[in-house]
Design goal:
Elements lengths: L13 H18 L3 H6 L7 H8 L7 E2 L2 E2 L3 H14 L1 H21 L2 H12 L5 E4 L15 E4 L5 E11 L6 E8 L8 E7 L5 E5 L11 E11 L12 H35 L11 H29 L5 H26 L10 H13 L4 H13 L7
Helix pairs in contact: 1-4, 4-5, 4-7, 5-6, 5-7, 7-8, 7-9, 7-10, 8-9, 9-10, 9-11
EC number: 1.3.8.6
Cofactor: FAD
Catalytic activity: glutaryl-CoA + oxidized [electron-transfer flavoprotein] + 2 H(+) = (2E)-butenoyl-CoA + reduced [electron-transfer flavoprotein] + CO2
C-alpha cells in the first residue's frame, strides 16, 4: 500500500499478517456492508457474536479454558481491523474479552473459569463489566455500590452503574462493589452476577449520537442476592478492575487506528475520483497537505501501537505506556477522521461514507477507559512524581 510509507507490514511475522488478513476479510464481508444500517437504526448485531467466537477474537489474548491464546500484537491487529468496520463491534470484543473474560481468567476461581470462559470464548455467553457509576465515572475509588455479606455467607448488592456496555444483552455481569467490614485497601471486590438474578435491572441509554451500533446501559441492583461463590476470590481492591482496564486500554490504542485508517483510505480514494474545476481533488495542494498529515499521524500511531504490543508480549508493558498509547492514538485518530470528512465535502455528512461515523464513535472511545484528562494526569504523575488526582 502506498500509504504504508514506513513499510510497517514488513515488521510483522507471517502469523501476525495472517491474523490481520483474516479479520480484515471478516470486516469487509460481514461488518462494512451492514454497518450504516446498524448505526442508523441503533442496532447491535447479536447474530455476529457467535461468528466472532468462530473468528477467534473473543478473549483471544487469554490462554486455556477454550481461549485462543494469541499474542498481544495479534490481538492489537485484530482490534484495528474490527474498528476499521466500527468502534461498536471492536468495543464488544473488548468488553467481552479484555474486561469480563479477563476479570474471570485473572481473578476467578478454577470452578468459575471452567464454568464461564469456554462458552464466552465461543460467543455463547455474553458478559459485561460493571464498574463506572453516575457520580464517579473517572474515580472508581469513590464507588457507592455496596456488597453486604448475608447471614448464610452470601452477598447482597445494592447500587447503580452507568455506561455499562452490553448489559441488556449479556447473560452475566462482572460487578465491582464496595464491601463492608474489611480493611479499606481491600474494600472493592468483584462478583459474577447472572443477569437473570432478581434485582438486576438494565436499561439501554437512548438516544445516542455515538456508538449507535453498540449497547450501553444504566444498571440498578435492588437487594440482589448472590451465593458466596459469586465472589471473584483473588480480586481485592482496585487492582482487580484496573488490571482489566489496562487490557482494554491496550486494545483501544490499536483499535482507534482502524477507524483512522478507514477514514484516511476513504478520503484518499474519494479525492482521486472527485474532479472539481476539471482536476482531481487529490491534485490540489491543500488536499495533499491534509492527506500527508493524516498519513504521518496514522503511521506514527501504528509504530507506537506495535512497540506497545512487542513490550506486552515480552511482559514489559507499563501502565504509563498504555496511557500514552490510548491518549495519543485516540486523539490523533479523531483528528484524522475530521480531516477525512472535510475532504468529502457535503457528502461526508451521509452514512454512505465512514469518517463522520467513525469520528462520532471516537468521541465515546476518547471518553471511556480513561478520559484524555485522566491519562494526561497518569503521565504527569509519572513525569513529576506528584499525583494531581486529589487535593
Amino acid at each position: 500500500m502506498k500509504h504504508d510509507v514506513l513499510e510497517l507490514a514488513a515488521q510483522l511475522s507471517e502469523a501476525e499478517l495472517s491474523q490481520q488478513l483474516k479479520v480484515r476479510e471478516f470486516t469487509e464481508q460481514r461488518i462494512k456492508p451492514n454497518i450504516a444500517s446498524w448505526f442508523e437504526n441503533a442496532t447491535f448485531p447479536l447474530d455476529l457474536v457467535p461468528e466472532l467466537g468462530k473468528l477467534g477474537v473473543l478473549g483471544m489474548h487469554l490462554k486455556g479454558y477454550g481461549c485462543p491464546g494469541r499474542s498481544a500484537v495479534e490481538y492489537g491487529l485484530s482490534a484495528l481491523e474490527l474498528e476499521a468496520g466500527d468502534s461498536g463491534i471492536r468495543t464488544f470484543v473488548s468488553v467481552q474479552g479484555s474486561l469480563a473474560m479477563t476479570a474471570i481468567h485473572r481473578w476467578g476461581s478454577e470452578a468459575q473459569k471452567q464454568q464461564y470462559l469456554p462458552a464466552m470464548a465461543r460467543g455463547e455467553v455474553i458478559g459485561c463489566f460493571a464498574l463506572t457509576e453516575p457520580q464517579a465515572g473517572s474515580d472508581p475509588a469513590a464507588m457507592q455500590t455496596t456488597a453486604t455479606q448475608t447471614a448464610d455467607g452470601g452477598w447482597q448488592l445494592n447500587g447503580v452503574k452507568r455506561w455499562i456496555g452490553l448489559a441488556s444483552v449479556a447473560q452475566l455481569a462482572v460487578v465491582w462493589a464496595r464491601t463492608e467490614g474489611v480493611t479499606a485497601g481491600d474494600a472493592i471486590r468483584g462478583f459474577i452476577v447472572p443477569t437473570d438474578t432478581p434485582g438486576f435491572h438494565a436499561v439501554p441509554i437512548e438516544p445516542k449520537l455515538s456508538m449507535r451500533a453498540s449497547v450501553q446501559c444504566d444498571l440498578r441492583f435492588d437487594r440482589l442476592e448472590l451465593p458466596a461463590d459469586a465472589l471473584l476470590p483473588e480480586a481485592k481492591g482496585l487492582r482487580g478492575p484496573f488490571s482489566c482496564l489496562n487490557e482494554a486500554r491496550y486494545g483501544i490504542a490499536w483499535g482507534a487506528l482502524g477507524a483512522a485508517r478507514d477514514s484516511f483510505e476513504t478520503a484518499l480514494a474519494y479525492s482521486a475520483e472527485r474532479e472539481p474545476f476539471d482536476r482531481a481533488l487529490s491534485s490540489y495542494q491543500l488536499t495533499q497537505q491534509k492527506l500527508v498529515d493524516m498519513m504521518l499521524e496514522l503511521q506514527k500511531g501504528q509504530l507506537l501501537a506495535l512497540h506497545l504490543g512487542r513490550l506486552k508480549d515480552a511482559g514489559q508493558l507499563l501502565p504509563e505506556q498504555i496511557s500514552m498509547g490510548k491518549l495519543n492514538n485516540v486523539r490523533e485518530a479523531l483528528k484524522i477522521c475530521h480531516a477525512a470528512r472535510s475532504i468529502l465535502g457535503g457528502n461526508g455528512v451521509t452514512l454512505e461514507y465512514s469518517p463522520l461515523r467513525h469520528a462520532n464513535n471516537l468521541e465515546s472511545v476518547r471518553t471511556y477507559e480513561g478520559t484524555d484528562e485522566v491519562h494526561t494526569l497518569i503521565l504527569g504523575q509519572h513525569l513529576t512524581g506528584h499525583s494531581a488526582f486529589r487535593g
